[in-house]
Design brief:
about 220 residues, alpha/beta, Nucleotidyltransferase, domain 5, five-stranded mixed beta sheet, 5 strands, about 45% helix
């Protein structure tokens, strides 16, 4: 007989962790590991125990307008939110994985600086954060399983998109407002035409290949 997979309720997932003795949960996720331009942004979010914000799920699967509405719902309902940002220059210096962990570390530090006490546990999408003394649970595809991680993914994504839209006003020729720094054909064509700008990640192979003609 075929086993039928039931869909995980992200709020029930978090509740099951609370029942294991972790009353205060912080979800952590990032946006911006994959792009070839701009920062990586992480968010840490603590949702109230009985709070259910309809529609909260993996930010990558949410249309932009709905994502922005959820962003404000999370801001209004969350007990606390922390943000961490690592720019493209630092990404080039230390590599994207270390930069992602650094952004997450900053987000958790920002969170704990703004609440009394600390979360009992941090739920993180897939990775762990070095030098954090709070108990951590790395969860594969966590943004699809945990409401707290999903909420963090929405906050991180909307904050990062806002940064990239601001960069569009500084470097309009790259049209960052459209692709947010991801390696779309249109974006790569712009790099080939104009060369990289200061927020392009020079350590990423796709950017390095397009830099060759500009390096003489």
């Amino acid at each position: 007989m075929l086993k039928v997979q039931t869909k995980i309720d992200p709020y029930e997932y978090d509740e099951s962790i609370r029942k294991d003795g972790f009353g205060v949960i912080a979800g952590v996720d990032e946006a911006g590991r994959g792009p070839v331009a701009g920062p990586v942004v992480a968010a840490a979010v603590i949702l109230p125990q009985n709070c259910r914000i309809k529609g909260v799920r993996d930010s990558k699967k949410i249309p932009e307008k709905e994502r922005e509405e959820l962003f404000w719902s999370i801001l209004l309902n969350a007990l606390c939110i922390g943000i961490g940002i690592v720019d493209s220059e630092e990404i080039d210096r230390i590599n994207i994985l270390r930069a992602t962990r650094q952004a997450m570390h900053s987000a958790v530090t920002d969170l704990t600086n703004n609440i009394s006490g600390k979360p009992d546990v941090i739920l993180i999408d897939a990775v762990t954060i070095p030098s954090i003394t709070i108990k951590q649970m790395p969860i594969i595809k966590g943004d699809a399983k945990s409401a707290s991680i999903a909420a963090a993914s929405i906050i991180a994504k909307v904050v990062r998109d806002g940064i990239m839209i601001k960069y569009h006003s500084i470097y309009p020729q790259y049209e960052f407002y459209k692709h947010k720094g991801y390696a779309t054909k249109s974006h790569l064509d712009k790099i080939e035409r104009y060369g990289p700008c200061p927020i392009h990640r020079k350590s990423f192979q796709k950017v390095m290949d397009l830099m060759l003609p500009f390096n003489g």
